[in-house]
Amino acid sequence: MAARPDPPLSAPPVPEDERELVSKAQAGDRAAFEILVQRYERRIYRLALRMMGNQPDAEDVLQETFIKVYSKLHQFQQQSRLYTWIVRIAVNQALMKLRQRRGNTVSLDEEVASEEGHLPREVADWHPDPEQQYQSAELADILQRSLEALPLPYKLVFQLRDVEELSTEETAEALGLTESAVKSRLLRARLQLRARLGRHFRAKGADSGL
Amino acid sequence: MGCEELIEHLSAYLDGDGEAGHRLELEAHLHSCPVCRSLVDTCRQTIRVFRGQALPELPAALHERVMARVRRENKL
Q: Which residues on neighbouring strands pair with residue A124, listed in sequence order?
């Protein structure tokens, strides 16, 4: 086995009691269902905020998502993670809302023209700890604006793979894309975000150009 | 192994995927190429800084509103 300089980015484990809670909720146990809502509502709210870009729409998406989760829970077979299944419902709810807002032009399947200027041509190390470089609200704003600037397919793949920590397979399933499409969008998203964040996080004196 | 191949396999490298022998080739390139080393480091920081953000608090009473609508619409 080759030595690795850094640990790989891995998905968080599924809580041990989840299978039992889902079975109870499927049998009509309200308390078990509410525990599952509490477990995932803030993550789904974050996803909805990122997709919708405003609080009222994100709140609507959250409500519609859990109404649908409850009404369809009997169909959930426990062969995938519950969280992945909820994410898929939330993405569909958000896409429906975006299509209502923008007309039927929102698609995850379209190819997006690549953006020039995101490929590295210079050595430019970043401040070792951007969290110390900015106040937390300012940093959150930089991240939000950087993500907002990405085309929706890239933004969503980055959010699911790198923030929500779904696997490539789970992301493909949630978005109705092939794994190969997820991989190519993720690479472009990471490179574009890195280029945008570099404008804020570049360490002073590190720009040495080759 | 050159910079283009490193970029092509960048995501798999960051995610710890790929065959061990190929990773060694990528690491050999990184050892000799400061541009790609900087690219890998800053992509890792990009992911880390997003992942390190705290989850947003739910707006007041949103949880209760969600549960009330679920109850009402599904007659729990």
A: A207
Q: What is the pLDDT of residue A182?
A: 94
Partner residue facing A37 (CB), from B52, B66, B74: B66
Distances from the Cα of A106 to the Cαs of A102, A210, B54, in angstroms? 7, 41, 29
The closest CB to that of A41, out of B53, B54, B66, belongs to: B66
Rounded Cα gap, residues A144 and A109, in angstroms: 23
User: Which stretches of chain A score pLDDT less than 70?
Assistant: 1-13, 103-123, 204-210
Does the distance separating the beta carbons of A55 and B42 come in below 8 Å?
A: no
Please check whether residue A31 touches B, CB under 8 A. Answer: no
Decide if the complex's ipTM is over 0.85: yes
Output B40 or A106, whichever has higher pLDDT.
B40
Tens of pLDDT along A64-73?
999 999 999 9
The nearest CA of chain A is from the CA of B1 a distance in Å of 17
pLDDT at A110: 60
Check residue A115 and report its DSSP letter. Answer: P
Inter-chain CB proximity A120 and B39 less than 8 Å: yes
DSSP for B23-69, written as a single string: HHHHHHHHHH-HHHHHHHHHHHHHHHHHHTSPPPPPPTTHHHHHHHH
CB B54: neighbour CB atoms within 10 A? Answer: 9
Are B38 and A49 within 8 A, CB to CB?
no
Q: Which residues are A126's β-sheet partners?
A: A202
Residues of chain A numbered 74-113 and touching chain B (CB < 8 Å): none
**Contact, A88 vs A47, CB < 8 A?**
no
